[in-house]
Design brief:
single chain; 8-stranded antiparallel β-sheet; two-stranded antiparallel ribbon; 2 domains; Cyclophilin; 10 strands; elongated; 6 helices; alpha+beta
Length: 244
């Protein structure tokens, strides 16, 4: 068990054994005292509170934060049973264009505050996720037929080009059916419609722990006044310690 100590109160954290790479990396950093004196540098009410940027230890007032790293990343560990309910600890990361494998930052993490969602809103999120998945599959298939498509376009064979595009789109839909389309489980729906969270982050960022005591402290931190860059106007520093 781990304690995140702040001026606003303490958060007791349980790390998940199902995500051993993230668990062990986090414990290593805690034991080294890495997090002591770092800030919760990014706060968005009804969304999350983020910390762990090494640059935040010596940051000046108003300094932009969030780009600091330790020179390595941690492979994604997506576990369906571990999702973005209120109070979970998850790893921050760079975006998909430069990080298609969704590898995690070595040190930066966030704690979910989130909000409560309706079943209709969850239905929409499922549809959006599967549209993105189908788009990615389509782009992959088209890249596999890139030379053929370029030849047809160069030769101005419009009908053949369009027929091939249509064929590839149908193939993408078939692959989507066999690629584990995104769907919220009954447990996720129950939690997201009662306790709340950030469901649109599922299968995008690795969840590796949860707050077991101190959910009210998350709300207090999330209510802090912030500047236009989402950094708290008044610094909120942390110290993280292992319990015996």
């Amino acid at each position: 068990m781990i304690i995140i100590q702040t001026d606003l109160g303490d958060l007791k954290v349980k790390l998940y054994d199902q995500t051993p790479l993230h668990r062990d990396n986090f414990i290593k950093l805690v034991q080294e005292g890495f997090y002591d004196g770092t800030l919760f540098h990014r706060i968005i009410k009804d969304f999350m509170i983020q910390g762990g940027d090494p640059d935040s230890k010596t940051a000046k007032p108003g300094q932009s934060l969030g780009s600091g790293d330790l020179g390595y990343t941690v492979p994604a560990e997506f576990v369906p049973e571990l999702f973005h309910k209120k109070g979970v600890l998850a790893a921050a990361r760079q975006g998909d264009p430069v990080n298609p494998e969704k590898r995690s930052s070595a040190s930066q993490f966030y704690i979910v505050q989130g909000r409560v969602f309706s079943n209709g809103a969850l239905d929409s999120l499922e549809a959006q996720s599967n549209m993105r998945l189908q788009r990615d599959i389509t782009m992959k298939i088209q890249s596999e037929h890139r030379d053929e498509l370029l030849t047809l376009r160069k030769e101005r064979k419009v009908a053949e080009f369009n027929d091939l595009i249509e064929k590839l789109e149908l193939e993408a839909k078939e692959r989507l059916k066999n690629s584990n389309p995104f769907k919220f489980s009954p447990e996720q729906r129950k939690v997201y419609t009662t306790i709340g969270g950030t469901p649109h982050l599922d299968r995008e960022y690795t969840v590796f722990g949860e707050i077991v005591e101190g959910l009210d402290i998350i709300d207090e931190i999330a209510n802090s006044a912030t500047d236009p860059g989402d950094r708290p106007v008044k610094d909120i520093r942390m110290k993280i310690v292992m319990l015996p």
